[in-house]
Structures are given as C-alpha cells and as structure tokens.
C-alpha cells in the first residue's frame, strides 16, 4: 500500500508546485507590464512630443479601466474558466505593448493603456481562483505569499530590464520585447498544462445554475479594506523619496536607499507572512496587529528626524510589516468567497486597490504641493489605523455547505 500511495502523493505535490510556478510567472508578468509604460515615459515624451500631464492621463486611463473591469472579469473567470481567461489576459497585455511599438502615436498610447487595464483585471481573479482550487489546504498561505512575491519581483525587475532594453535596442524594440513576455508565459502555461478552475457554477435543487449574488457585507468590507490598505502603502511607494528629501532634509541617495529597503523588506515580509498565515486561522487579528505596529512606526518617521542608518532600518521595518499582511489578506477573501466563486470574490475586492490607485496620486500629490511632506507618512499611518478597525470585522467563517471537499 505504501508503494502505491507515495507516488500518488508525489504526483499531487509535483502538480501543485508546477501550478504555483506557472501562476506566479503570470503574476510576474502582471506587475512587470504595469511598469513598462512609466519606465518609458522619457522616451515617449520625446518621441510623441507630449507633456507629462498627457502621460499622467495614460496612467489614469489604465487605473480606471482596471477598476471598472475587475468584478466583471471575476464573473467571466467563474463562468468560463480561469485558465482560458488568464491566457487571454497574458496575450492581451502583450498585444497592447506590441501594438504601440508598431504604431507609435498618442491615440495608440491611450488604446494601449485601455488594453493593459483590461489585461490587468484578469490576473487576480484568475490566479487566485486556480490557486484556491488546486493548492494544498495546509500550505495555502505560503502559496498565496509566493504568488504575491512573484508580482513584487516583476515590479522590482521592470526598471532595470526596461532601462537595459532602452539603452541597447531603443524604445520601439523595448516595447516589442516587453510585450512578448505575455504570450511567452501563455505558451508556458499551455505547454506545462496549467489546470482549470471555475466554470463549475453551483446548481440549485432544480438543476439550474445558481444565480445567488455573492456581494455580501463581508466582501463589501473587504473591498473597502483593500482600498484603505492600498492608500496606506501607495503614498510611501510613490512619494516616499520626494517626501524624505523635502521634509526631512534627506539626500537623494539616502531617500532612495530607504525606499529600496522598504520595498525589499516588503517582499521578504510577504514570504514570512505566508508561513504565519498557514499556522493560524485568525487572519484578521494578524492583519490588525501588523497594521497597528506599522502605523506606530510610520508615525515615528513622520514626527522624528532620524539619522540615515536608523531611517533605513525603520523604513525596512515598515515594509516588512506591510508585506506580512498580504497572505492573511488573501486568506480573508478566500474564506469569504462562496464555493465556486473565488474569481468573482477576488475580482470584487481587487477593485479596492484600483480605486486607491486612482485616489492616491491625487491625495499625496496635493500634500506635496502644499509643502506637507511629513503628512505623507502621517496620513499613511492614519489609513492604517482605519484599516486596523475594519480588519476586525472582515473575517467570516465558511458555512458548512460551503466547506471544501478536498484539493487536487
């Protein structure tokens, strides 16, 4: 019996590892593609002879389209299958950059932002639906953390990859090469047979597909939770360097080192948070504790002018605590999602991040325009306090009829 069972277990484990690697690769592309256009702004400004406000409008279009299409895409994932939608998203994102490389003009740049926004709406609903269906229940938190870490890595690698391509091959070729990563990963997903998820709509007693709405109070609270969480971190990521330079007399190099420490520690915190999420079912309390400590850390940065070494260490602490929240955050959504509706659930709550992406530049940019750089950290801390309060109301246990019957 042992000789029969052991190979079966190894096969399941290998399938899960392969699935996690493939979905993480897709998430890497997601974050990489999000930063390709911003990294090419100097080239696009010169090539198209446009102003920065016109370039900023491109990012606004991307954020608005992503926000409006996340929830509908979640429905498509559950209705038609996550694998199919994910493959379409990867190819669509690649095509948007390739199209701009072939026809470089401002109208095509706007169209590229629209297509990138549509592609971006695919990843969270499709990725999490597949992971929720096929990962080992006991290691779900770690699976979510590795997936999130891959996205962070894609964003971190984008500047140096785009810069290298731009320097050696030029802007047009950089667009084409960066766009090719989407279809290339789609081919990998097909070649290594990433499993399907979704398309298993629950049926009622009469045998018809259930039309029960999944928009519950818990998911609404989680959407607001995601928005507040995005607002609490995006200000530091986007305006941290200029805030430290203008409000704390930090040099450019000191501010950049501090922000780099913050971002690297965030990625490491995500991995640590995955282990923690697998060892407790009190995910809301984990999020609340990490957020509460982090708010105190940010408030200290806002109120006290720290020497460079201590500033870097404090920023790293804030980043690590912020990263630790991510796996518990995702576990909260998974617990709140009805069976067979993971795509829709993650699609709905992810709109919170999109809304924060729209509001954050306006709010924190206004603070900088008002010569209030220390308030970048104070307001971020305030959003974290609000998130702590909300976190304590976001956890809902699955009802018995929604209990999982096993994993593949």
Automatic annotation (TrEMBL):
InterPro entries: MFS (IPR011701), MFS_dom (IPR020846), MFS_trans_sf (IPR036259). The chain crosses the membrane at residues 20-41, 53-73, 85-104, 110-131, 143-166, 172-192, 213-237, 257-277, 286-303, 309-326, 346-368, 374-394. Residues 19-399 form the Major facilitator superfamily (MFS) profile domain. It holds the Pfam family MFS_1. One of its GO terms (cellular component) is plasma membrane. It comes from the Bacteria. GO terms for molecular function: transmembrane transporter activity. The keyword Iron-sulfur does not apply. Keywords: Membrane, Plasmid, Transmembrane, Transmembrane helix. PANTHER family: FOSMIDOMYCIN RESISTANCE PROTEIN. This is MFS transporter. It comes from Microvirga ossetica.
């Amino acid at each position: 019996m042992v000789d029969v069972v052991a190979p079966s277990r190894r096969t399941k484990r290998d399938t899960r590892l392969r699935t996690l690697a493939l979905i993480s690769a897709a998430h890497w592309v997601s974050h990489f593609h999000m930063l390709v256009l911003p990294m090419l702004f100097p080239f696009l400004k010169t090539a198209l002879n446009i102003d920065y406000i016109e370039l900023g409008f491109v990012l606004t279009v991307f954020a608005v389209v992503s926000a409006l299409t996340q929830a509908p895409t979640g429905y498509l994932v559950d209705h038609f299958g996550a694998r199919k939608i994910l493959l379409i998203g990867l190819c669509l994102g690649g095509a948007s950059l390739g199209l701009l490389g072939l026809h470089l003009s401002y109208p095509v740049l706007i169209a590229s932002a629209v297509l990138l926004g549509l592609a971006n709406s695919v990843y969270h609903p499709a990725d999490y639906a597949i992971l929720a269906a096929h990962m080992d229940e006991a290691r779900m938190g770690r699976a979510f953390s590795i997936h999130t870490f891959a996205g962070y890595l894609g964003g971190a690698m984008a500047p140096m990859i785009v810069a290298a391509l731009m320097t050696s091959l030029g802007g047009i070729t950089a667009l084409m090469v960066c766009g090719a990563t989407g279809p290339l990963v789609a081919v990998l997903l097909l070649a290594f047979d990433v499993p399907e998820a979704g398309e298993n709509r629950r049926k009622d007693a009469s045998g018809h597909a259930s039309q029960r709405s999944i928009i519950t109070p818990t998911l609404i609270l989680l959407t607001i939770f995601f928005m507040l969480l995005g607002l609490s971190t995006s200000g530091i990521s986007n305006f941290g360097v200029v805030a430290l330079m203008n409000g704390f007399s930090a040099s450019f190099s000191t501010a950049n080192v501090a922000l780099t420490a913050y971002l690297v520690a965030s990625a490491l915190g995500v991995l640590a948070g995955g282990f923690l999420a697998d060892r407790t079912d009190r995910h809301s309390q984990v999020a609340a504790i990490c957020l509460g400590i982090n708010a105190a850390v940010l408030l200290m940065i806002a109120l006290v002018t720290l020497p460079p070494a201590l500033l870097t260490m404090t920023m790293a602490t804030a980043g690590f605590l912020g990263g630790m929240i991510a796996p518990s955050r995702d576990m909260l959504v998974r617990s709140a999602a009805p069976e067979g509706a993971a795509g829709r659930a993650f699609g709905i709550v992810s709109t919170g991040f999109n809304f924060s992406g729209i509001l954050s530049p306006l709010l924190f940019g206004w603070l900088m325009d008002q010569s209030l750089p220390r308030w970048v950290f104070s307001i971020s801390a305030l959003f974290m306090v609000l998130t702590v309060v909300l976190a304590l109301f976001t956890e809902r246990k699955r009802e018995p009829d929604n209990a999982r019957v096993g994993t593949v």
